[in-house]
What does this fold into?
Amino acid sequence: MFREGLAALIAESARFDVIGVRGTGAEALSTLSSYCADIVLIDSDIVDTHFIDLLQGIADISPLTKTLCLISSGAMHFSGTAMLRGSRGLVTAHDTSRHLISALEQVSIGATYISKTVEVKRVFRRGTPAFAEAADPMDTLSARESQVFQLLVQGVRAKEIAGRLGISAKTVDTFRSSLMRKLNVETKVDLIKYALSRKSYLAAVDNSGRGLSVASSA
It folds into this structure.
């Protein structure tokens, strides 16, 4: 419902042609392997892959396609990484439809758009144009470690995590050990307590089912 609503808003603007709405990263990459969209709007809460990995996948498959990320509060700490991985802009659910269309317009001409609702300090170092360094331990997690973290705190077993992510159970254990070391926790109970203390981050674990819209400028 959410992504269909976004697609309708974009189409109603008459400034862009929406060529498709995809619910998973795999579907989006499949489409882009045969069709070069001008712009892809990515929801950071897409459920089958981490949106940072999706950004890289789009860059590899369709390097001429520009990307705009819809960042949730739980994924805000990935803002700087998203820009470093090639996103041309950042918007949030707090932006109006007018702001979304403006962002798409700016991105379509090769400009950068960062919404006023995005925590800019997450993207830039104070007083410099350089991208921000990690502000807290969560920022040190890789995209894959973040995925494993999200699934672990949901109570998903290592074997099932391996199946969902397409990796071995041993690799899951490696990521788990690495992320626990970075977060300075020793047990799974400690990990869950840490997650509970980060309620804003847990919003990213909500699995709302939101995906992404693929838009081609008219």
Observations:
- The longest strand covers residues 16-22.
- The first helix runs from residue 2 to 12.
- Strands lie at 16-22, 39-43, 66-70, 89-91, 113-114, 212-217.
